[in-house]
Amino acid sequence: MKLIDNIADMKSYSDRIRAEGNKISFVPTMGALHTGHLKLIKNANNISDICVVSIFINPAQFGPTEDFNKYPRDLDKDKGLLKEIGVDAIFFPKLEDMYGDHFQTYVEVEELQKPLCGKLRPGHFKGVATIVLKLFNIVKPHYAVFGEKDYQQLQVIKKMVCDLNLDVDIISHPIVREQSGLAMSSRNDYLDSGQREKACSISQALFNIKQQFDTGITDRNNLLDSAYSILNKANIDEIEYLEIVDGKNLIEKKLAGPGDLVAIAARLDGTRLIDNIRL
Ligand code: AMP
Rounded to an integer, what distance in angstroms lies between the CA atom of residue 52 and that of residue 29? Predict the structure, then answer.
């Protein structure tokens, strides 16, 4: 497994792989890897000759009051997990190399960045799109795998790839959940066992909406009402949003239909968790 910590080496590694006629798959991550990440990476490994994983905590996607400084970091553990899976290369660039002096060029996916997480995290998707484009230019993958857990991010990336004519196939991977239903996340590390139990009501609320939809209920307010009572009962009262939106353009729906997305962001004692389900 190649350990690559600078941009020039990553570019020349990818150039060599491409010149040999091999296909590169790529999974960008912020590290603190869990089983969810590892499933994406196994998928990427299966569809290509060479699989590259990046580990980079991207400051540009964190707001000034967010958890950039305390975001979990354990590069040695991550390297061990990736070696076990049989990844070909890990790219872990330095902050100062990715964002040099007076960095001032950003990508914005104007409409898709606005709803849901974009409302309370202004600038987040600008930071995401910019770092992903930079990583694509450095790693030069044929395929890139993203998780549906970050559904809005996935749509933003797909749109950027389409609008900017990038030669990368974007592959999505379903949400990986713990047995309790809780969507796996590096931020779950912040939760103690009681908080984890509480956090399960987030996915339960989503499953409840899906169940109701499957019985024929389509009115947004009817669908959301009992989800709110599940969340209130678990004392999850800081709900940033719970919305039913079109699965492609993320515009809010009053009447839900097949393929729509139910998305939630909630804070649990300061820890921000997101989850979603397709109807
Ligand atoms: P992150 O390290 O949080 O930036 O995530 C890196 C990639 O892993 C992103 O494409 C995420 O959507 C994906 N991912 C993280 N957690 C999960 C999960 N529980 N299920 C599916 N994909 C996930």
Answer: 11
CATH T-level assignment (fold) for domain 186-278: Pantoate--beta-alanine Ligase; Chain: A,domain 2 (3.30.1300)
What percent of the chain shows pLDDT beyond 90? Answer: 99
Q: Whose CA is nearest to atom 22 of ligand 1?
A: 147
Gap between the Cα atoms of 7 and 10, Å rounded: 5
| pLDDT on residue 237 | 76
Q: Is the CB of 124 under 6 A from ligand 1?
A: no
Cα-to-chain-centroid distance, residue 148: 7
The pair phi, psi for residue 272, each rounded to 5°, is -90, 125
Give span(s): CATH 3.30.1300.10, the chain. Answer: 186-278
pTM of the model: 0.98
Range(s) within the chain of domains with CATH label 3.40.50.620: 2-173
Confirm or reject: Cβ of 29 under 6 Å from ligand 1. yes
Q: Residue 219's pLDDT is what?
A: 98
**Average pLDDT of span 242-259:** 98
